[in-house]
Design a protein that fits this description.
Elements: H1 12-16, H2 22-42, H3 48-74, H4 87-112, H5 118-147
Helix pairs in contact: 2-3, 2-5, 3-4, 4-5
């Protein structure tokens, strides 16, 4: 699955796959972290440098949780929509679940660190994750429509 590689929790399967390049994982993690740091700095929580540091911490946590999540999703018994039936729907479901896991993980980390106000944290994290998931989601939608 190439589509979730730009997303943080979506990096989990790449992290779990021993044939994957560690360099690719680190570069993608850095790109995602920088995009999210930019968005967080726009919400004026902290300077760009501090936002980048916390974004990296959040995304490492999201990646690890995504790796655990991918173990369960890859089991045929727990897969809601088998890949052989409709790859597009399976991929979309995977992307939405990864996006949700990222938001829950990252907002929780920032709230534990004491970032306030809570509503602003949730809005900022949702916006940052939507920005990083927009590219793979757009590619997936194009893929689905091309196959129709």
């Amino acid at each position: 699955m190439l589509f979730p590689l730009l997303a943080d929790a979506g990096l989990g399967p790449l992290f779990r796959d021993p044939s994957s390049s560690l360099i690719i994982l680190l570069v993608l993690l850095a790109v995602v972290s920088l995009i999210e740091a930019f968005v967080l700095s726009l919400f004026q929580f902290a300077s760009f440098a501090k936002s980048a540091l916390w974004s990296l911490v959040m995304n490492v946590a999201s990646t690890l949780i995504g790796g655990v999540f991918s173990v369960f999703v890859s089991l045929p018994a727990l897969s809601a929509i088998p890949i052989y039936m409709n790859f597009g729907i399976y991929a979309l479901a995977y992307l939405v679940i990864s996006w949700s896991i990222s938001i829950l993980t990252e907002a929780s980390i920032l709230l534990i660190l004491g970032w306030q106000p809570r509503k602003k944290v949730w809005i900022a994290v949702t916006t940052a994750n939507t920005a990083t998931y927009a590219i793979p989601l757009t590619l997936l939608i194009v893929f689905i429509f091309l196959r129709l």
